[in-house]
């Protein structure tokens, strides 16, 4: 079915799903490692790219392909490349596009392991880096060097909720011949389309909003340029970080309700953020939907909604936050985000523990910061849960 010119919700449900010989209403799990060729010539033609058809699941598989086509359309890109995890996607992007002597400019408060991979691993191969506050595009401009090959942004960033002007950052990067990569995990393609804002590559930890049910780890990359897509796919296949058909089946199911889940969760998040902001025991709240967020106006221009991620700190800092996490009953104390269930976690000791305290503070991640991923439960129940837990602090 041709879905390119149809609306987001229609694409979400239909884009990419093939119609097999049985008329299956959903894409089945093609749980096979390899695909038989009719004869030797067909095999040779498929390997040479002269004939369509699947070869081997690390290279491609119908269940995975359906997801890749679906998310490529949701992001208004050319091709999707599914990976075993979000970090698999990050690894493919770095490996494909950063060579010895290349320089990367990135968001200081980026997801910890995305930064750790550059600082601890790629630096061993001579990759240079500058982590800066990209919410001020001037910092990107002044960090550009003749060897800058990539501007890697995360917006909104996890968990500092800093927002980068993707269009302005892309203008700066392109003037210096660098590619722009955006981690769109926090927003999802429903709320933000980086490729439309000038970025070259967008990726997701589909573990989060795209799948949305906390039962899959996975990633996906979408790019615009055909040659870049081909290069990224070759790297994914060579590194062997492909998604598995069963994973893809679950994500194909999850993505069909993306907009409904995001709408409901962000409605809850707005009410909770306002409630937290008015609470006497709360020191500060960072939610991109609140007028108190320093980039609220940019968010309104760049995103079509505010999402469901909230960071806040209680008066009493780390000890108070720890106490809160031990006392919530409805929210699950767990890392990850973007699922139908509400999760709470402590970045400084969990997701961002790999970063030094100095780097965390520079990126706005204080030791007392609590990250709250709002789900689709009844908001009254979530607020009551927070209320009883905060009362015990
Ligand atoms: C913003 C962001 N990017 C990338 C990742 C990595 O994804 P995964 O855990 O699927 O490897 C995460 C995981 O939490 C994340 O929050």
Task: Give a verbal description of the structure.
By secondary structure, this protein is of the alpha/beta class. It has a seven-stranded mixed β-sheet, with helices on both faces. It has a five-stranded mixed β-sheet with strand order 8-9-12-11-10. α4 packs across α8. It is globular. It starts with 7 loop residues before the first helix and ends with a helix. The mean pLDDT is 96. Bound molecules: pyridoxal-5'-phosphate.
Please give a quick description of this structure.
This protein is of the alpha/beta class and about 400 residues long. The protein has helices at about 10-15, 40-50, 60-75, 85-95, 110-120, 135-145, 165-175, 225-240, 245-255, 260-275, 295-300, 315-325, 355-360, 380-390, and strands at about 80-85, 105, 130, 150-155, 180-185, 200-205, 220-225, 280-285, 310-315, 330-335, 345, 370-375.
Oligomer: single chain
Give the names of the bound compounds. pyridoxal-5'-phosphate
Bulk shape: globular
Following the backbone from N to C, one meets helices and strands in this order, namely HHHEHEHEHEHEEEHHHEHEHEEHEH
Alpha carbon gyration radius: 21 Å
Report the end-to-end length measured between terminal Cα atoms. Answer: 55 Å
- Describe the largest sheet: 7 strands, mixed
Secondary-structure content class: alpha/beta
- What is the mean predicted local confidence, pLDDT? 96
Please provide the count of β strands.
12
Helical residues, percent = 25-40%
List the strand order in the largest sheet.
1-7-6-5-4-2-3
Tally of separate helices: 14
What layout of secondary structure does this protein have?
Blueprint (H helix, E strand, L loop, with lengths): L7 H7 L25 H9 L13 H13 L4 E5 L2 H12 L5 E5 L4 H10 L6 E5 L4 H7 L4 E7 L11 H10 L3 E5 L17 E5 L13 E5 L2 H14 L5 H11 L2 H20 L4 E5 L9 H7 L6 E6 L2 H11 L4 E2 L9 E3 L11 H6 L7 E4 L5 H13 L2
Parallel strand pairs: 2-3, 2-4, 4-5, 5-6, 10-11
Antiparallel strand pairs: 1-7, 6-7, 8-9, 9-12, 11-12
Helix pairs in contact: 1-3, 3-9, 4-5, 4-8, 12-14
This protein binds pyridoxal-5'-phosphate.
